[in-house]
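Q: Convert this sequence to structure tokens.
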Amino acid sequence: MKQVLKILLLSSLFINLAAGFFGPIYAIFVEQIGGDLLTAGSSYALFSIAAGILIFLLSKWEDSIKHQEKLLVLGRFLAVIGFIGYLLIQTPVHLFIVQIIFGVSVAIVTPAFDSLYSKNLTKGKFASQWGMWESMVAIVTGIAAIIGGFVAQNYGFKILFVIMLIMSIIAFIISLFLIKKKKRK
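A:
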């Protein structure tokens, strides 16, 4: 397996771990900041729609970019900003802003990640190497859900958000190796 794939997989592992901690308990947090189920649904909709529209627009532009590694790093950095934002949320409006930041982050990362990952697949191993990423995301998200619920229940959301922030910083740092690797070529 090529070094670029290893870096992408490891970075993805940590960012998906960070995001997975929160998934199943998201609505409980929304309620704690004064929101309700409609707030939870609306905030997730903002994230998803922002990501979807921007992925569509940015992917066309990213096709012409020579240094997609830098876009992936930028997207990971925005995710770090988003996770810092979770520590500062006090109202549903704050949550909406943070979810839009995450939407932009995902929109920048997704086309760059998919392109870099695809370009670095080993011929004849496309299915197994994409399968490695897909299975890793599913397993990590499942494990993270259990850990996130445990941490939030026993230590609170602030501690959970700090852990999520740390995981996102690790993902960002790992992604920097893509730029260093590119410079060595």
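The mean pLDDT is 95.
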